Amino acid sequence: ISSFEALDLLLGTAANRAIFPNLTDVVIVGHSAGGQFADRYAASTGEQAALAAAGVRVRYVVANPSSYLYFDATRWHATAGTFTALSSTERQACSAYDTYKYGITGLNAYTGSVGGATLRAQYGARSLTYLLGSLDTDPYDTSLDTSCPAKWQGAVRLERGLTHYSYLGTIYGQGVYANHLLMTVSGVGHDAKGIYTSPDGRAALFGSPG
């Protein structure tokens, strides 16, 4: 069973007002690998509609992941100063760069049942807060994804997060930033405790950031 399906079952139960009559908010939170989970789940779950119908607000907090889901085949090219398609040589050198979990080709069973167009639409419409440690910049961190597809998103986690946030504007337009917020947590590296206990982290988890 997919881990996304397991969480769907939990959210479906949370939407039951007979069980949780006072529930107002659900926050899906993940740091590092958990941040990768929260990022992809935000795009793919269909259970949010049931929660919305029950009057429950759903938010996602994505903290310091090694990679993000991209919705087209473009990536940042520093020399061009923009997001562009890879050249044939670049694609040959990194053939999996746009394959799920990095892109929306080669989707797995769960995300494939949703489809790339819906993944893209749902992600843009949902409420996400990205928490990035300003010191999460170690290219030799043993837990950093150093695969070729990940490197096409940036050299280190901080760069990947900032680049992905900029990318959202090219995909959805500037209106996406009304419900996609980014906070860079000063003086914190790849540290879940440091991220979550910071003022920005507490606001993202328990308040209404922005």
Question: Can you lay out the helices and strands and say which pair or pack?
Answer:
Layout (H helix, E strand, L loop, with lengths): L2 H12 L10 E7 L1 H12 L3 H6 L3 E7 L10 E4 L4 E4 L2 H6 L15 H6 L1 H10 L2 E6 L14 H4 L5 H16 L7 E6 L6 H6 L1 H8 L4
Parallel strand pairs: 1-2, 2-5, 5-6
Antiparallel strand pairs: 3-4
Report on this structure.
The chain has 210 residues and is of the alpha/beta class. The chain is 41% helix and 16% strand. It has helices spanning 3-14, 33-44, 48-53, 88-93, 109-114, 116-125, 148-151, 157-172, 192-197, 199-206, and strands at residues 25-31, 57-63, 74-77, 82-85, 128-133, 180-185. The model has no long low-confidence stretch (mean pLDDT 96).
Task: Quickly describe the structure.
With 210 residues, this protein is an alpha/beta fold. Helices cover 41% and strands 16% of the residues. The strands form 2 sheets. A 4-stranded parallel sheet has the order 1-2-5-6, with helices on both faces. A two-stranded antiparallel ribbon has the order 3-4.
| Main sheet: strand order | 1-2-5-6
Low-pLDDT regions: none
Mean pLDDT: 96
Distance between the termini: 36 Å
Main sheet overview: 4 strands, parallel
Determine the strand fraction and express it as a percent band.
15-25%
List how many beta strands DSSP finds: 6
Provide the helix percentage. 40-55%
Q: Can you count the helices?
A: 10
Write down the secondary-structure element order. HEHHEEEHHHEHHEHH
Q: Based on helices, strands and strand pairing, what is the structural class?
A: alpha/beta
What is the approximate shape? globular
Radius of gyration: 17 Å
